[in-house]
Amino acid sequence: MKVMKRKMGERKKKDSKKSRTSEWPLIKPKSNLEITRLKDNDLFTVNGFFSSGESKAFIKVAESIGFVHQGSLGPTRGEAYRDNDRISVQDPVLADAIWSSGLNKLLSDLKIRGKTAIGLNPNLRFYRYKAGQRFGRHIDESIDLGDGKRTHYTLLIYLSGGSRSKTRNDNTQDSASETIVGGETVFYGPRNALVAEVPPTEGMALLHVHGDRCMLHEARNVHTGVKYVLRSDVVFA
């Protein structure tokens, strides 16, 4: 089976946006976070990493910036199937705020190849999956940031998901509040054996190793609702 790679910064010039630091919601430090390891793999979840209010606020700002459709040339051209909407911003201040809100403590003992986790890649991406959209099986590549810094883990923060009311209190429809059916992040081991299925849950963070140790994974088709994800990478030095 040919492994499809998703390169870091893919189509960056096409859809990158200027940082709007002053408009991002404030992220409160979390003191009671717990990290859970899944299936004895380099795969972790953190429930409640963002509050519901923080998640919704990020969606609101991202929508105000405007998403750009992200596709691919397809497997025949060596690219994984991809159909979603994307925003990319370069914002070291926001990356540091996310890291310092609790990830820095949770990952303080995480080491890889003798290096320690020190922060997040300032290249932050927002993904939007509407009904019918998905991202096929692929692996995430590691990126060299220079000065001895390199990314080794993918960070996904689900901004929507879980069972919630389909409408706001004012009875106006809110697609970000719909229950999401589908959209699971699915990981595969040797011989395509299923390792884990992670359903999108509002505010939950998911971390998995990438680069040459990355598990083949996909974002399954969204059937109902709109899945929003904030993506970055954990930097080691």
TrEMBL record:
* Names of the cofactor(s): L-ascorbate
One GO cellular-component annotation of the UniProt record comes to: endoplasmic reticulum membrane
| Record's keyword terms, sorted | Dioxygenase, Iron, Metal-binding, Oxidoreductase, Signal-anchor, Transmembrane
Question: Key word Metal-binding present in the record?
Answer: yes
The question of whether Kinase is a record keyword is answered with: no
Q: Where is the composition biased (Basic residues)?
A: 1-19
The protein depicted here goes by the name Fe2OG dioxygenase domain-containing protein
Native source species: Coffea arabica
